[in-house]
Specification:
Elements (H helix, E strand, L loop, with lengths): L10 H11 L8 E4 L9 H16 L3 E6 L9 H14 L7 E3 L4 H13 L3 E4 L3 H7 L17 H12 L9 E4 L14 E5 L13 E3 L1 H12 L3 E5 L6 H11 L8 E5 L11 H9 L14 H7 L3 H11 L10 H15 L1 E3 L1 E2 L2 E6 L8 E6 L9 E6 L2 E5 L19 E4 L4 E9 L6 E9 L16 E2 L1 E3 L4 E8 L26 E8 L11 E4 L3 E5 L10 E7 L3 H12 L1
Parallel strand pairs: 1-2, 2-3, 8-9, 10-23, 12-18, 16-19, 21-25
Antiparallel strand pairs: 4-5, 5-6, 6-7, 11-22, 12-15, 13-14, 15-20, 16-17, 17-18, 21-22, 23-24, 24-25
Helix pairs in contact: 2-11, 7-8, 11-12
The structure holds one RNA strand.
Length: about 575
RNA sequence: UGCCCGAUGGUGUAAUUGGCAACACGUCUGACUCUGGAUCAGAAGAGUCCAGGUUCGAACCCUGGUCGGGCAACCA
């Protein structure tokens, strides 16, 4: 149960192990991750990346990166770069096996010629509309095209002229000759090539016909020696076509790739489709593809997620064929688990309330020892300045605290982390608004951390920052982008943006201990008692340091106070 | 009313292939704590979509339903 080798296998591993036992494809395991460069990668892709590269590693095989770039009208170089960057960042390596479906355009063309010669493909002169109409419906068979029985020679001639650019876009296609009455729509003479006078990000203008997914994908797998072609469930119905194309090219008993489908990842309170994510970007609802609220890999990275946390998340969600919705709490658990071990602790007050220690000498200052990471002694200690005026968190004080509130209140005592025990003597309010603006407290000099009476029991420990030494930091507090568990579950006429959370981003200025100013973009720290934060790589400048909250700490007080709130 | 796939605690995944449901997250106790974090100890929570059948024995096999998802781009 604890050794990965003893852990039960998911259904894909079971298939692979059976193939290995049967010496299929000489017991090789070779997978691939085949993104289309038309958008940024998201956490769902991360699951697939971890799966494919993980399988390659586990079975001593290989994993290729292949860009599925058969549609020049949607694909861009920018996406290629971001995708490679994200995969590397996640910790995976395709070594020298970087491929593009467009690398195979020639090969694919030659093979298409072969199918035509074998009377397995034909050129159809009809319009898109005609073809669509003839395809039938899932419950009604399709009609054969009037061009279906053209001679091989005519097909050859026409297809070559399509390639030579003699016809305008949309005037002709090459179709596989299969079965217009198949109950599987994808077998009703699917289109193999369309005419597209478009410039391709890699092949430029050398082609004006481009292969369709079904024709390109399986053959690319074949050319690369892929053994297990893993994709998501919506391609399940394509598998007969995947196999049919291979049947035309592969001899019985020879090497052949195999398509296996698994259920894609869904996360509660988020959307995962590239189209919808693109919409959020284009409409300016978020701050680009790497907005820290986005489920994109670049967004999670900017938010402060670590590759390790994403990998362990992918591990935990498992692989199966049934539709699933993973609780975001699991993702959050995964980062906390990782960050707890790794990140240094710092004191920072997000919503400052001034506290004056009336019996602490005016101009006295102290340096107090603070532990960097209680989970990791090797991280050592640092010093934090202490003085008469400090800031504490506003919500660590209540004028009329309930029994279970273990923090500061009139007449109450609490410990200041690494410092003294203080007692609240007086509450100062703004006479106009009634808002608490300052607390007058006394400190007990005997209770300094490490001193004899420091073991005195108090209800709670607060984080704080010396006012004189405090530095301003910008803090960005993120919450879920959508308020509905399934943003797509909306009534007619409304779309997924209906439940957008207006408070998904709150920007405030906090007060931080001086050591925090040393943090560099991407650095991750725990603000003690508050959460994990990372230095934003986009808005941080030499004058202003910006922190993104990756995830708050688990907060059992919030749970208590929320549940009593609800009861009322 | 065609075809393909799926159905196991709140969520996700297991059950070594027919031996009487486990793990993780979440939830709830309690201990500990100079983070209401972490850690530790423990608990509740499913009898496996339904109905039949085969079997000494079924979450696993068979039959028939039910429910959910997918399929009609010259997208991937």
């Amino acid at each position: 149960m604890n050794q990965s080798s003893e852990r039960s296998l998911n259904f894909i591993e079971q298939i692979i192990e059976e193939d290995i036992r049967n010496n299929k494809n000489e017991s090789r395991v070779h997978t691939r991750f085949p993104p289309e460069p038309n958008g940024y990668l998201h956490i769902g892709h991360a699951k697939s990346i971890c799966l494919n590269f993980g399988l390659g590693k586990k079975y001593n095989g290989l994993t290729n990166l292949r860009f599925d770039d058969t549609n020049p009208t949607k694909e861009e170089e920018e996406y290629v770069k971001s995708i490679m960057n994200d995969i590397r960042w996640l910790g995976f390596d395709w070594e020298d096996r970087l491929y593009y479906a467009s690398d195979y355009f020639n090969h694919l063309y030659e093979w298409a010629l072969k199918l035509i010669r074998n009377d397995k493909a034909y050129v159809d002169d009809q319009t898109v509309e005609d073809i669509r109409r003839q395809r039938g419906t899932p419950t009604r068979p399709g009609l054969e095209s009037p061009y279906r029985s053209r001679s091989v020679d005519e097909n050859l001639d026409l297809f070559q002229r399509m390639k030579n650019g003699e016809f305008p876009d949309g005037t002709r296609v090459l179709r596989a000759k299969i079965d217009m009455s198949s109950p599987n729509m994808h077998m009703r003479d699917p289109v193999m090539y369309r005419i597209l006078h478009a410039s391709h990000h890699r092949t430029g203008d050398t082609w004006c016909i481009y292969p369709m997914y079904d024709w390109a994908h399986g053959q690319s797998d074949y050319l690369e020696g892929i053994t297990h072609s893993i994709c998501t469930l919506e391609f399940e119905i394509h598998r007969p076509l995947y196999d049919w194309f291979l049947d035309q090219l592969v001899k019985e008993g020879e090497y052949r790739p195999r398509q296996i489908e698994f259920a894609r990842l869904n996360l509660s309170y988020t959307v995962m489709s590239k189209r919808k994510l693109l919409e959020l970007v284009k409409e300016g609802i978020v701050d680009g593809w790497n907005d820290p609220r986005m489920p994109t890999i670049s967004g999670l990275r900017r938010r402060g997620y670590t590759p390790e946390s994403i990998r362990s998340f992918a591990d935990r969600v498992g692989v199966a064929k049934r539709d699933n919705v993973i609780d975001v709490a699991l993702l959050e658990y995964s980062v906390r688990e990782d960050l707890n071990k790794k990140s240094d602790r710092r004191l920072a007050v997000l919503d400052p309330l001034k506290v004056t220690l009336t019996n602490y000498p005016e101009d006295r200052e102290e340096k107090l020892d603070a532990i960097n990471n209680p989970e990791d002694d090797s991280k050592g200690k640092r010093q934090i300045p202490f003085s008469r005026e400090i800031y504490i968190e506003r919500n660590d004080f209540m004028e009329d605290p309930p029994r279970k509130f273990f923090r500061l209140g009139p007449g109450r005592e609490v410990r200041l982390k690494y410092a003294y025990i203080i007692k609240c003597e007086e509450v100062i309010k703004d006479p106009a608004t009634g808002q608490v603006v300052e607390l007058k407290c006394t400190y007990d000099p005997e209770t300094k951390s490490g001193m004899t009476r420091s073991d005195k029991k108090v209800k709670g420990t607060l984080h704080w920052v010396s006012a004189k030494h405090a530095r301003d930091i910008e803090v960005r507090l993120y919450d879920r982008l959508f308020m509905q568990e399934d943003p797509n579950d909306v009534e007619e006429g409304k779309d997924f943006k209906y439940s957008l959370n207006p408070d998904s981003l709150k920007i405030t200025t906090g007060k931080a201990e001086p050591a925090l100013l040393e943090a560099r973009p991407g650095d991750k720290v725990q603000f003690e008692r508050t959460g994990y934060f990372c230095v934003d790589s986009k808005y941080t400048t030499s004058e202003r340091i910006v922190f993104n909250r990756t995830v708050p700490l688990r907060d059992s007080w919030a749970k208590i106070s929320n549940s009593t709130h609800k009861k009322k």
